[in-house]
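Internal ticket #5521
Category: modeling
Description: The requester needs a full-assembly model to guide mutagenesis choices. All entity lines are attached below as received. Residue total reported by intake: 711.
Assigned to: D.W.
Attached entities:
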Amino acid sequence: MTTATTGMPAEGTATDLPRLLPANGQRPEDWHTHTASYGRIPYRQAPGRLVADIQHAGLTGRGGAAFPVHRKLTAVLDAAAAKRRVPVVIANGAESEPASDKDATLLWLAPHLVLDGLQLAAEAVGAEEAILYTHADRRADVGKRLQQAIAERRAAGSDLVPVQLAEAPPRFLSGQETALINHLGGGPAIPTFVPPRITERGLGGAPTLVQNVETLAHLGLIARRGPRWFRQVGTRTEPGSMLCTLRRADGTPRIAEVPLGMPLRDLLGPAGNDGAVLIGGYHGTWAPAGEAVRLTLDNYSLGSIGARVGAGILIALPPDRCGLTETARIVRYLALESAGQCGPCLNGLPRMAAALAELAGARPRRQTRADVERWAGLVTGRGACHHPDGTARFVRSALITFAAELDRHERGQCGAANPRPFLPIPRGSARTEQDWL
Amino acid sequence: MTEKLLVNPIECEGHGACAELLPELIRLDEWGYPIVDGRPIPPVLERDARAAVSACPTLALRLTRS
Amino acid sequence: MSGINSSTVLWYASRATGVVALLLMTAVVLLGLVVTRQGKVPGLPRFAVTGLHRNLSLVAVVFVLLHVLTAVADGYVNLPLTAAIVPLASPYERLWIGLGAVSLDITIAVIVTSLLRRHLSRRLWRAVHLLAYLSWPVAWLHSISSSRDMLHSWMFLLAAGCALAVVGAVGWRLAAASRDVPRAERVGLLMTAVHDRGAFRHRPGGGR
């Protein structure tokens, strides 16, 4: 389990952090400690009543897309009323991004915060069933903890709607909203084409609310403490705190709960001035460390270099590693994780992977870099999901950030001393349909 | 009422009939898949756009109203 | 039969329209196979292959209707109109008429579901469309069993030719389909191919 550190407050900000992670650090909360700290779940007694608070709080999704939560709640409520169908709520804890561990950590340490939020979200949209979707590889620890937690709640009679646990196959796409629903509906965990939106027609054709588990934890706390409390940290346009997975140059990942707007310099630590930083995971953006340390953890600041907060993954690549080699490894993984449904993604990603492998090697051909740029442009926006877009963004930022390294490789040199792989990649790739089920 | 072209990339198999009928708005990439101009369709091309939508063997191309 | 009278004319008309309908149906099936394999007919743009497939099927139905109406109007064989679409409705237990009715029923279903395609699920449309593979041989059997003359005349050569064409085309389609790569294996195959620089030849239509 990833080490969780308590919040790292910047100077001068109001700090009641951590909010989600337990103050005692590592000890998971059970039902008794949870209810002792938080009391009963503050149900609102009718659907829709929580939405205004969520809107005033300005809560956005913590799964990567940062979509305003109140808008999703409203969309589901409207669709349910228009179609006279009972909605379904799904807590997305699939965390299929290999470099991220914050959701698993949250579910391990504070499952009841997530489960409270799930109940309140279910009440808010008038759902009658809830599903908690977790990664198949975490069955032994997180899965067991959740089964325990759900059993405790059933015994206490605290829940409005029954919660089912479901497992996501170990595919990069399995946390994607439509892929998740496709899988829960009995199919493979591959995306489907939108329209229709899942808030209108999702699982079993019902309006479906899918929220990241961290988002639900925040939602539950907003219901208890109110929107003004939520806004005490963060920025005016991007309020609140979030969980981040930090991988510093020494390699060990840490989970930290930090306020939005926190300077990256504080998150990356003193060693983070050298080398390169990956902001936002494998669909994110590479930046030179010198540039990254001038930014803050919010979409406004990160947008200036074309980056996004995403799911809060920050990785500092040690200066002794070759950024091109790491990029090539990741793109190979991303290509293998393509669902293979859409022509541009199916054709573009493997070609980009092969080209990057060549660029990471000695004396790549001149044409190869132009090919990669062209393919990155060709795949963007032409798939049913954002897998090709994210991969293209990752690739393009690598070509910019590691431009000097590219020149060295063209001359047959490499600036890196350490050939050991740094970025984590799961073992095994999908070979048959079974691997997607 | 403006209409735009939209491709369902999952259903699209790269037959290419659409690009033949509406080269002003659709061209094929190096793999045979359509790159669709997503801007509103000019009225003079509306008939051709409908023909292109109709000609798609997998019904991947569609018109959306906005 | 002595002399040419209206009944004879109708009888010949029924025969003729039947032959044309069979030829058209054969062309429709062949064009449909070309569409599914993304093939090209020399000289025809791709949209025309699909367009011809659809339009010819409508023309074929027109000829089948003429074929039915002339047969009913002709008094030689006493046929109620319903026998055209209700198999075995003919009082003369003529199996071959029943076969024609089955084929026509399926054809109508295929055409109606295709016209309404946008409003139906893909699965339903596809399932009905696949019945065309049944409709054609049934129509063919109807054709060759409609009269003993068929077995001795040039019409038999025509029927044999159509059968050879369809069987050949279906065989080609099945062979090609067996080389199709299941979705979950596509990306792995392409990865291997592109990493073998030079071993991969770019096919229009992509990596499918």
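Resolution: model delivered.
Comment from assignee: Chain A has three domains: 17-230, 242-317, 323-421.
Ticket closed.
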